[in-house]
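explain this:
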Amino acid sequence: MKKLLLLPFFALLMVMSCQEEVVEITEPTEGEALVATSELTSLMKSTSTKDGSEDNIIDNANCLSVNFPVSVIANGVEIVINSKEDYALIETAFNESDDDDDSLEIVYPITVTLSDFSEVKVNNLQELLVLVQQCTGENQDDDDIECIDFQYPFSFSVYNTSFQVIEVVTIESDRQLYRFIYRVRQGEVFASINFPITMVLSDGSIVVVNNNQELQQTIKAAKDTCNEDDNNDYHDDDFTKDRLDNLLMTCPWVVYEMQRNQNNLNDLYREYTIAFYPENVVKVRRRNGDLLTGIWTTRITDRGALIKLEFDTLVDFSLEWFVYDIEYGRIKLFQEGGNKIILTKNCDIVFDITKDRIENYLQECYWRVARLNVNGTDNENDYIGTPLKFFANNVVKIRINGEFVTGTYNILAQNAGFILQINLEGRPNLNLEWLITFLEPGLIKLEAPNSQMVLEKHCFDVDTDLVFIDTILSVGTWEVSLYQDGTVNKTENYFMYTINFSLTGLVKVTDPNYGITFGSWLSYRNEGLYLGLNFGVQAPFQTLNNRWKIVSITANRIELKDFSSTGSIERILVLERQ
């Protein structure tokens, strides 16, 4: 595994050593090692810097953003801005009048986020102008790089001064990366990127980089390749027809959100797929696989770019839509009267789904039951740590307590689409006829009457972070050093118990009287690193059945947290090697 070393120069003079219990570290060459103030760390800082130009219609400032919610008065009309999509409401208010002297007032106080992600409370216009004056002007060079982005998550390995791995840190946002790189540039941490990582260009295409040299070259090559739209006009007034047409035809687009005449139509149209073809042909694939064909055209006006869709049957799509925002991999369409579509780009989707293609896809890797709701009851917790594996000849296996239970499956073509039948003894919640509603690399969504299931792909020995975690856990014996439920410390419930993890997916608990409890475990990635633990109903470990977020891991310690839906910490579990 190659790593980007982010080290002060004096670290090159140290003796680099590594114990067997940590990941192998290759001594860097002079070309691989970087000082904290190197060009690459500067490029990474600029790429993760917060871009403040998206809301220039409000603040006329490229280096800061106004936090939601914020109230403004546009041409005498008060508007509450709760999301990026609401910027279009300001543009609509401006467009209702032919008078070019548009006015906008902000209702104070507000909070703004600066380019370094710090937040400042602003009480009046004078205080805002002081901050705005610190930004560069319209379309002037600034520090942030907007034409390329990091695809999250990815991770760093953090070292001590002897170059031993002491922590793996997962980065999941620009904010986290900016602050981590700041610490690197200050010489507070020694770290290396765990390659490969993926970069996303402004047109939605991706580039996989494998070392620091490739990363530096990729960012430098891309940083000036797009229009950063750092003017004070609303998004995409300067978008050309050719550029828009080419963007639409690069890949299929998936309906993420839809509203028509102020009615929320997400349940009806979410995950419909749209493909734009030459000669103005557009095709929409329903969730059941049906294809509908229509016509698309684009034009550029003083108001901006517009897309017109015409279908005989899909009347909700048939409208001329104003392009009010374009991000990498996402297009947002708007029209007055409460009409909105958000499309996300997905180059992996194939329109022509066949039975053979589905079977080959299922057989590529294991599949983790991420969601299972049957007749209104959530059942996915029954499948923590127990992935499915589909084989040729219609054989399916589920791994429970490190052993496989064998069943059968079948793919059927019906009028509604393709059906996945599963037959596993003792698993009635899986044994339904599942309509395949969404199929893309890494994800399958299925529906049955009053039931939904989501499967996520899990390939062993591919993700270097997961290999590191599995290797660490499978060595030696572990114990619960901390279990905190809310504010209550319940660690004493687990005194004298020992835990062993096997690479087969078996977790074995031995109690003080040498009784043994078996369970299942699985480390996986899902916008972060997780450890699934499933001890069945055996007390006291049944309370630890959960998909735990991995906060940190070393050779002798792993810290896990359970977060609520609002992001607050509900439970903490720490395992330490004996």
The chain has five domains: 3-48+146-222, 61-126, 241-345, 355-458, 464-577.
